[in-house]
Task: inverse folding
C-alpha cells in the first residue's frame, strides 16, 4: 500500500486542484466548535481539530433529505404522482474524518446495504464520496475507540488515511478511490520505506485512556438483561432529548414525512430518535415504549446487545465519546456498558476486571 | 459551598431513615468535569453518593412531574421557584414534598470554561470563590464570578423561596443587577436586524429538543412538536420549522419561566435560547410586576385578570 508525503506547503495547492474535480467537504471551525461543511471555492479544510461536535454521518445521511416531489394540482397531467427529486451524486471528497467515524460508516452500511434491501440515497452518496481520514494523535479523555473495535489510526471505511508529521502529512492510499484523489491533487511524493506511521499509531493508541469491556455481552441472556433492575437507575436522569442519537455516528434511524405547501408537496426523510416518545407510537395511539425507561433501555440494548447478537461484529458504537460529552445529564455509555457487561452471576470477566 | 454536601447527606439520611420520604432527588458526581447527574436515592445507605457543587445546573423540578411518591428534593433558588410553579399547576402536591433548600452561589458555565481553557478540560475543582481548571498543559484559576452561567450572573433569587430544610444560612442576594441588558439590546434593533439576529442564533439547532426536555415547564403529555393531528410543524431542518419550534416553546413559558438556565445548559450546540424566554420574563415583570414561582399564594400573571392590567397592546 502506497504511502505518500504531502508537504504542508503544497497542501493548499492540492486542495485547489481538487476543487475542479470534486465537491469538497471538511471540518470548519464555527464559533466554539468544529463542524463538517461544504467547502466553497478556495476554502481549506481546517485539520487542527480534536473532533467535530456532530459526527460526519450527515455527509451520506443528511438530517433532512427530499426523496420525492408531487403536485396536487388536478389540472396538471402528473398530479398525485411521486417523482424522484433530482440529486447530485457527482464525486465528492470528505477530509478530516476521524477513523472512529469512518468505522461507524461501515457499521451503518450494514443497515443500508443488505442483500435484501439497498437504500439508494445513502448508497449513492456513499459511492460518490472519497473518505480521507485524519489520524488522531491527541484523543479526548472520553475516547474509547480502541476497545470499541476501532482506533486512532484505524483504516476501515477510509480511502486515504492521513497523519500529521510536522512539516508534512503522511497519506496512506488505501483504495483505488484514494489513489485517484491523490493523482487529481498532484500529490505523488513517495514517503519511501518508513515505519513512521506504525510508530505514530502505537503512540496514539497508548494515549487512549478510556476503555469499555464488551467481551461478555454476547453471552448474556437478552431477556435477563432486558428485565434487569439497573435500568431504572440508568434511565432516571434521562430527559429524552435526541442529543445522544443525533451526535452519534452509528445511529441510523429515520422518519419519513410528507409536507405539502399549497398544491405542491414533497416526501422526505429526517433523522429520528428512539429517545423521542413518538418514535414508536402506533396509529391506534398505543405506544409500546411509552416510558423513559423503555426508551433508554432500547437505545443501549440495541447498541450493546441486539446488534452484537444479530451481526456478530462487536458493538454498535465506535467509542467517539460524543454522547458522553454532550449528554445534558451525563448518562455515560461507558458506565452502562460496564453495567451490562458485568451483569449476572455467570460473568467471570467482571470478576477479573474488578 | 463547602459543607453543603455533608449537610445534604445528613438531612437526606435522616429523612429516609425516619420514613419522611421514599426517595431523595439530588445529584451524584458525573463521569466528566463540570457534569453531575440527576440521581435518585431510595435508601439511607446510598446517601453518600449525593453531592453538591457548582455543576448542579440541571433543574431537578423536571423530575417531579406527576410523581406520586413522597419525595425529598434538593432545590436551589430557581429550582424552588419551579417547584412552586409545579405545585400551582398541579404537577405535584406540596404535601408530597420535603424541600431541602440550597442557598446558591451560582453555577459555572462549562462551555465558557471549555472555551477559555487551552486544550481539553481534564478536571475542575473549586473553592468558595475560585475555579481551578486542569488541562493537558497545566492549571488555570478563574474567579468564580467571572465564569458563572449567564443566568446565574443576573440572578436575584439565589435563596430558595420555599423549603422545609435548609443546608446553610441564606446567602446574600445580588444587588444592583442589570438583569435585562441583553434583552434591551435586541429590543432596540430594527425588525430586519432582529430577524437576522434570531436566524443566526437558531442556525445551529439540530432539533434534539434538549432545551424543552430539560425545562421543568415542558411537561405536556404530547408536546406540540409531536402532535400529528393536526401536525403543527414540519420535522425537517427547514429554518421556518426551527423558528416556529423555538418561538412557540418560548411563548408556552411566558409568565412561568424562572430563568434557571437549564435549556441553555442542555443545548449540545450552544444556542442561547434563554434570550427568547427572558424577553417574556421581562415583559411579565414590567407589565404585571410578576416574577414566576415566588409564592404559593398568588396566581401566575397569565392565569388571572386584574382590572388594572395593562391594555396598551389593544389597538
Result:
Amino acid at each position: 500500500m502506497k504511502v505518500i508525503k504531502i508537504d504542508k506547503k503544497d497542501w493548499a495547492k492540492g486542495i485547489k486542484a481538487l476543487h475542479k474535480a470534486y465537491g469538497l467537504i471538511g471540518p470548519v471551525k464555527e464559533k466554539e466548535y468544529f463542524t463538517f461543511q461544504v467547502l466553497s471555492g478556495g476554502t481549506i479544510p481546517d485539520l487542527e481539530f480534536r473532533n467535530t461536535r456532530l459526527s460526519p454521518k450527515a455527509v451520506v445521511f443528511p438530517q433532512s433529505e427530499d426523496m420525492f416531489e408531487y403536485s396536487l394540482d388536478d389540472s396538471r397531467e402528473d398530479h398525485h404522482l411521486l417523482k424522484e427529486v433530482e440529486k447530485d451524486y457527482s464525486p465528492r471528497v470528505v477530509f478530516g474524518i476521524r477513523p472512529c467515524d469512518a468505522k461507524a460508516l461501515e457499521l451503518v452500511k450494514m443497515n443500508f446495504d443488505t442483500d435484501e434491501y439497498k437504500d439508494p440515497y445513502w448508497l449513492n452518496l456513499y459511492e460518490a464520496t472519497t473518505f480521507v481520514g485524519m489520524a488522531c494523535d491527541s484523543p479526548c479523555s472520553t475516547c474509547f475507540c480502541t476497545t470499541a473495535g476501532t482506533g486512532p489510526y484505524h483504516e476501515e471505511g477510509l480511502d486515504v488515511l492521513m497523519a500529521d508529521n510536522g512539516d508534512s502529512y503522511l497519506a496512506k492510499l488505501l483504495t483505488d478511490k484514494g489513489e485517484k484523489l491523490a493523482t487529481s491533487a498532484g500529490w505523488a511524493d513517495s514517503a519511501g520505506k518508513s515505519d513512521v506511521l506504525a510508530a505514530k499509531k502505537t503512540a496514539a493508541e497508548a494515549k487512549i485512556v478510556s476503555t469499555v469491556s464488551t467481551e461478555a455481552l454476547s453471552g448474556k441472556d437478552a431477556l435477563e438483561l432486558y428485565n434487569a433492575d439497573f435500568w431504572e437507575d440508568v434511565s432516571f436522569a434521562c430527559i429524552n432529548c435526541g442529543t445522544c442519537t443525533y451526535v452519534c455516528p452509528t445511529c441510523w434511524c429515520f422518519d419519513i414525512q410528507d409536507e405539502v405547501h399549497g398544491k405542491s408537496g414533497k416526501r422526505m426523510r429526517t433523522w429520528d430518535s428512539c429517545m423521542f416518545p413518538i418514535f414508536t407510537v402506533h396509529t391506534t395511539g398505543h405506544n409500546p415504549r411509552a416510558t423513559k425507561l423503555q426508551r433508554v433501555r432500547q437505545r443501549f440494548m440495541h447498541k450493546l446487545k441486539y446488534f452484537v447478537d444479530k451481526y456478530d461484529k462487536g458493538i454498535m458504537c465506535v467509542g467517539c465519546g460524543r454522547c458522553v460529552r454532550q449528554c445534558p445529564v451525563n448518562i455515560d455509555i461507558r458506565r452502562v456498558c460496564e453495567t451490562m457487561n458485568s451483569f449476572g452471576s455467570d460473568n467471570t470477566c467482571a470478576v477479573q476486571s474488578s | 459551598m463547602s459543607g453543603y454536601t455533608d449537610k445534604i447527606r445528613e438531612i437526606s439520611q435522616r429523612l429516609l431513615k425516619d420514613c419522611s420520604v421514599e426517595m431523595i432527588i439530588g445529584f451524584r458526581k458525573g463521569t466528566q468535569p463540570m457534569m453531575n447527574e440527576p440521581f435518585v436515592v431510595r435508601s439511607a445507605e446510598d446517601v453518600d453518593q449525593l453531592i453538591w457543587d457548582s455543576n448542579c445546573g440541571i433543574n431537578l423540578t423536571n423530575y417531579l412531574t406527576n410523581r406520586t411518591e413522597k419525595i425529598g428534593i434538593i432545590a436551589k433558588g430557581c429550582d424552588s421557584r419551579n417547584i412552586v410553579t409545579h405545585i400551582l399547576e398541579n404537577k405535584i402536591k406540596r404535601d408530597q414534598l420535603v424541600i431541602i433548600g440550597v442557598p446558591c452561589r451560582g453555577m459555572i458555565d462549562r462551555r465558557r470554561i471549555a472555551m477559555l481553557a487551552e486544550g481539553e478540560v481534564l478536571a475542575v475543582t473549586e473553592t468558595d470563590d475560585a475555579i481551578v481548571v486542569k488541562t493537558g498543559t497545566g492549571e488555570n484559576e478563574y474567579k468564580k464570578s467571572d465564569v458563572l452561567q449567564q443566568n446565574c450572573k443576573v440572578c436575584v433569587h439565589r435563596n430558595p423561596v420555599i423549603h422545609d430544610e435548609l443546608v446553610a444560612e441564606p446567602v446574600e442576594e445580588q444587588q444592583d443587577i442589570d438583569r435585562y441588558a441583553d434583552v434591551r439590546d435586541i429590543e432596540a434593533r430594527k425588525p430586519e436586524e432582529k430577524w437576522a439576529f434570531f436566524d443566526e442564533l437558531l442556525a445551529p439547532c439540530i432539533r434534539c429538543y434538549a432545551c424543552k426536555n430539560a425545562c421543568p415547564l415542558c411537561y405536556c403529555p404530547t408536546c406540540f412538536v409531536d402532535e400529528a393531528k393536526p401536525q403543527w410543524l414540519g420535522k425537517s431542518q427547514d429554518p421556518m420549522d426551527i423558528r416556529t419550534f423555538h418561538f412557540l416553546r418560548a411563548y408556552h413559558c411566558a409568565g412561568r419561566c424562572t430563568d434557571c438556565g437549564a435549556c441553555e445548559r442542555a443545548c449540545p450546540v450552544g444556542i442561547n435560547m434563554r434570550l427568547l424566554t427572558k424577553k417574556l420574563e421581562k415583559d411579565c415583570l414590567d407589565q404585571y410586576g410578576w416574577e414566576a414561582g415566588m409564592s404559593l399564594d398568588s396566581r401566575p400573571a397569565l392565569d388571572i385578570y386584574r382590572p388594572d392590567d395593562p391594555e396598551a397592546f389593544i389597538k
